Amino acid sequence: MSWSDPIADMFTRIRNAHMAGRDMVEMPHSKLKGEITRVLKKEGFITDYVVEGGKRILRIYLKYTDEREPVIRGLKRESRPGLRKYVAADGVPQVLGGLGITILTTSSGVMTGKDAKKQKVGGEVVCSVW
Length: 130
Description:
The chain is 26% helix and 31% strand. By secondary structure, it is α+β, with helices and mostly antiparallel strands. It has 2 domains: 57 residues, Ribosomal Protein S8, Chain: A, domain 1; 55 residues, 2-Layer Sandwich (Dna Ligase, domain 1), CATH 3.30.1490.10. Strands 4, 5, 6, 7 and 8 form a 5-stranded antiparallel sheet that branches. Strands 1-3-2 form a 3-stranded antiparallel sheet, covered by helices on one side. The relative contact order is 0.18.
């Protein structure tokens, strides 16, 4: 487990589960991980997620196409503990010309880059998903 960057650990677990063809992946829960997972579900990248148990385990149910290809083609950590990346509302990056999403943490909560532009808020770029 990565103690210095739990968000990168979360993304690595998702990537590894996709490569192994798993339908579900478990990890320790945190508020930020839960909010990122909520955005992924809202945008259709995962099937569902559940927070369980006394130790607060986050269980993510992964989504595949009919040909058993992962819906999440790529997942990249943008801002990291050693180099934070902040953007203004008009500087939110596009992913693959709009085919992917950018997830930001803002003063209004965790949201996609598109929602941040609509609400005219900037924040920290957590990741890009395509």
